[in-house]
Specification:
Helices cover about 70% and strands about 0% of the residues. It has one domain: Arp2/3 complex 21 kDa subunit ARPC3 (Orthogonal Bundle). The chain contains six helices and no strands. The protein is mainly alpha-helical.
Length: about 160
């Protein structure tokens, strides 16, 4: 039992670190935040299909990423909560692989536009931000995440073994 807890903590830490590295990398190109964003690290939101450790890992990774990349405090909170909600939804839909990427798309498409409009006072309307953030999330979660889901599924018993 103890080894399982250690394994889950190690998996969560690794996922958090990977999320941070991917976000930090893509932020150099200006794609990690703003009205038009394709945060490739959001592809990792499919990982709760394989392990519940991905839920805290994604949340902590997003939280650290938002802190380090200079997001406003309310963005750190609500952006991280959007990722947490998406990860929880993905875990709930883990038996339906093609539906699993939908919760992070939905949570970010609904929450992030309000952050852009009210925290950053970005120029544009909430429906416009929903469109741009939603497109970025579809690219990150459904396209890239779907590819990741297929590749990792082949090696799930090796990478995500439970003991």
């Amino acid at each position: 039992m103890r080894n399982k807890k250690v394994l889950l903590i190690a998996q969560a830490a690794l996922i958090a670190a990977l999320y941070f590295v991917l976000t930090y990398f893509i932020s150099a190109f200006g794609l990690a935040s703003g009205a038009i964003q394709v945060r490739i690290s959001e592809a990792l939101t499919v990982l709760p299909v394989f392990t519940p450790a991905a839920i805290p890992g994604l949340f902590v990774g997003c939280l650290i990423s938002n802190l380090v990349t200079g997001c406003m405090p309310l963005d750190v909170i609500f952006g991280s909560l959007a990722t947490l909600l998406g990860a929880l939804g993905t875990y709930a839909l883990r038996r339906h692989r093609w539906l699993a990427p939908l919760p992070p798309i939905a949570s970010n498409t609904i929450i992030v536009p309000f952050v852009l409009a009210y925290v950053y006072e970005a120029e544009g309307t909430i429906p416009f931000f929903m469109l741009t953030v939603g497109i970025g999330e579809v690219i990150s979660c459904y396209v890239l995440g779907g590819i990741l889901l297929q590749v990792l599924n082949r090696y799930r018993n090796v990478i995500f073994r439970q003991e």
